[in-house]
Structures are given as structure tokens and as C-alpha cells.
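Aim 2 progress. For Protein-export protein SecB, the working sequence is reproduced below.
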Amino acid sequence: MQNHSNEEGGMPHIAVNAQYIKDFSFENPGAPGSLASMDKSPQIDLALDLNIQKLPEEDYYEVEISISAKALSNQKTLFVVDLKYAGVFNLINIPEEQIQMLLAVHCPSIIFPYARKIIADATQDGGFQPLMIDPVDFGVLYSKKMMQDGVLYDNEKKH
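Predicted C-alpha cells for this construct:
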């Protein structure tokens, strides 16, 4: 990595100023019947989304991970969990061309383990096996999005 410097001449740095739950819900619509032992693992429908917002303060951004999970067994909903978990990041001395990638890859990677634990704890506290979401490679998601948007490479040919 090249050493970039701007007017202040400082080292590039990302500071996590806050992490928090913005919105959270857990539904257990079939309890207590849904808590009986199941003969097979439930089907899990999982969705993950990322929302990045520039804050009024200079070089501050909110990065929000939205996770929705629904467990189904025999066409019945066992549980539904929705979480919006966010962090406020201060990007210090970061070159302009790196900001978007850092916000979409590095910042969500910092806060994802906390969101993952909240989901696992909630499902376990709801009477089920903890839902352990596989680690997410935000770099791969970012690359796919850039390729879909056609911005990853200026000379990229559309297929």
C-alpha cells in the first residue's frame, strides 16, 4: 500500500466513533408449539443489505448493515428476525479514491461480528438453536456490485 498524505500529512486512519442497534425485532409466532423438537433443520431465508450515509460532520459516515432472517419448517414460520446495526466511522486522511471501497468493505467488516452475535443471541433466547450467519466477504459483494454498475473498470466490456 502506498503512503498517501494530504494537507495535514497524517497517516490514514479509520476511527469507530459509535456502534448501535438502530432497529431490531424478533417474532416467534408459533410459540410454544414451534419450540417442539423438529425432525429436520428449518429452511432459513436470509437477506443482507448495506446502507452508507454521509453525516453532516466532515469525514464522518454511518454504515448500516440490515439483516433479515426467516426460519420455516413444514411451511410454517418458526421465527423472523430483523436487525439494523450501524456504526459511525471517521475517515482520517483517507484518499478520496479509497473512501467508497473502505465504507463498503472495511467498515461493515468491523461491525458485522457484533450484528451476527445479536442475531445468534436473539434466536437462542427465542428458544431455537442460535442462528450462526456465515461470515460475509464484503470485498466480494463490493466487487460484484461494482461490476453490475459497470464502475469497477473503466474499460470493462458488458456481457
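DSSP finds two helices and four strands in the chain. This observation will guide construct design in the next reporting period.
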